[in-house]
C-alpha cells in the first residue's frame, strides 16, 4: 500500500459569499453545425472550452489564436469570442458556461484570468483529466436524471481548481503576456460601439486617419478576418442572442443589429449559422424546453 498525506492547509481560491453555478454544458462536434455561435459575448457569465480533438482558430477580443487538441480556452465575462469555422480541421470541443464566480483576488466577478494571461492554455499531461471531467459533466447533465445538478456542481468545482493550477503555471511562464495591437484594439472597440450603423471600410479608415488598405491589413493580421467580415459576424452574433433571449420579431431583430433588408439578414444568418433565424429560434426553444 502507498499512502499519501495532505502536507499543508490550502487557502480557498473562491470567495465564500459567491457559489459558482453551472449554467450549461455543450458538446460541439465538427460534424454538427446547427449550433454555430458567431462572434458574441456574455456579460454575466464566463465560458471554458476544451479542445478534445482537431485544430482550428479562435478569436478572443482583438486577437486570433491557433488552437489544437488539449488546449483550454478561457473567455471571461464580457469578452468577445468567436470560432473561425473556415479554418477548423475536424474541431471537436466541450464547453461549459458558469456564473456567480468570484475568486479571492482583485479580478472582477466571472473572471478566471487577468489580461496578462494568455487565454489559450495547453493542458499537456492533464489532457485526460480535463477530457474526462468535461465529458462527464456533459453526459450527466444531458441525461436529465435526478440529483445530477449537484453532482455536476462538484465536478465543476474540481474542474475550476484544475484550471487555476494551469493558469498559475501560465502566469509564471515567459510567454504569458499578450502582444496586442493597440491600433487594432481601438478599431475593434469603435466597431463594437457602432456595428449597428452603416459602416464602411472607408468611413472607418477616415475615422482613424489611415488608408483603407492599411486598416484591412492590420485588422486581418490580428483577427483572421477583415473589418467588414467582423461587422457582419458581430451583427449575426448579437442577432443570435436576441433571438433566444427576447420575443422580438425576426424583422425587428434584423433592424436592431443593423440590417436594413430582412431578406439579406436571412441569407447572411443562414450562411454563418447553418439555420435560418426562424429555425434557430425554434431549435433553441425546443432544446430548452426539453431539459
Question: Can I get a quick summary?
Answer:
The chain has 291 residues and is an alpha+beta fold. Helices cover 43% and strands 18% of the residues.
How would you describe the overall organization of this protein?
With 291 residues, the protein is an alpha+beta fold. The protein folds into two domains: 21-172, Sandwich (Jelly Rolls), CATH 2.60.120; 182-290, Arc Repressor Mutant, subunit A (Orthogonal Bundle). 43% of the residues lie in helices and 18% in strands. It is built from nine helices and seven strands, in the order βββββββααααααααα. It has helices at 127-143, 148-172, 182-194, 201-207, 212-223, 227-245, 250-256, 262-273, 277-290; strands at 21-28, 46-60, 63-68, 71-75, 81-83, 89-99, 120-122. Strands 1, 2, 3, 4, 5, 6 and 7 form a seven-stranded antiparallel sheet that branches. β2 and β3 form a beta hairpin. α1 (127-143) packs antiparallel against α2 and α6 (227-245) crosses α9. The longest helix has 25 residues, at 148-172. The radius of gyration is 20 Å and the shape is globular. 31% of the residues are buried.
Amino acid at each position: 500500500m502507498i499512502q499519501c498525506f495532505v502536507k499543508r492547509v490550502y487557502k480557498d481560491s473562491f470567495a465564500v459569499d459567491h457559489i459558482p453555478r453551472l449554467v450549461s454544458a455543450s458538446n460541439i462536434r465538427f460534424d454538427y453545425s446547427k449550433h454555430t455561435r458567431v462572434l458574441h459575448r456574455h456579460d454575466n457569465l464566463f465560458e471554458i472550452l476544451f479542445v478534445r480533438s482537431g485544430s482550428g482558430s479562435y478569436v478572443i477580443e482583438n486577437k486570433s489564436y491557433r488552437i489544437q487538441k488539449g488546449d483550454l480556452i478561457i473567455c471571461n465575462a464580457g469578452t468577445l469570442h468567436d470560432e473561425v469555422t473556415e479554418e477548423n480541421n475536424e474541431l471537436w470541443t466541450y464547453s461549459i458556461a458558469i456564473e456567480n464566480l468570484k475568486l479571492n483576488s482583485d479580478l472582477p466577478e466571472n473572471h478566471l484570468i487577468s489580461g496578462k494571461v494568455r487565454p489559450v492554455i495547453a493542458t499537456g499531461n492533464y489532457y485526460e483529466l480535463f477530457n474526462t471531467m468535461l465529458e462527464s459533466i456533459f453526459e450527466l447533465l444531458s441525461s436529465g436524471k435526478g440529483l445530477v445538478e449537484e453532482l455536476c456542481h462538484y465536478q465543476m468545482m474540481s474542474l475550476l481548481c484544475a484550471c487555476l493550477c494551469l493558469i498559475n503555471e501560465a502566469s509564471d511562464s515567459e510567454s504569458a503576456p499578450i502582444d496586442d495591437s493597440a491600433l487594432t484594439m481601438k478599431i475593434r472597440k469603435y466597431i463594437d460601439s457602432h456595428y449597428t450603423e452603416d459602416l464602411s471600410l472607408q468611413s472607418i479608415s477616415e475615422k482613424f486617419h489611415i488608408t483603407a488598405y492599411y486598416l484591412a491589413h492590420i485588422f486581418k493580421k490580428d483577427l483572421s478576418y477583415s473589418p467588414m467580415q467582423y461587422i457582419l459576424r458581430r451583427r449575426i452574433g448579437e442577432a443570435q442572442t436576441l433571438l433566444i433571449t427576447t420575443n422580438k420579431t425576426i424583422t425587428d431583430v434584423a433592424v436592431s443589429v443593423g440590417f436594413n433588408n430582412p431578406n439579406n439578414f436571412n441569407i447572411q444568418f443562414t450562411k454563418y449559422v447553418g439555420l435560418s433565424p426562424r429555425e434557430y429560434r425554434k431549435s433553441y426553444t425546443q432544446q430548452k424546453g426539453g431539459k
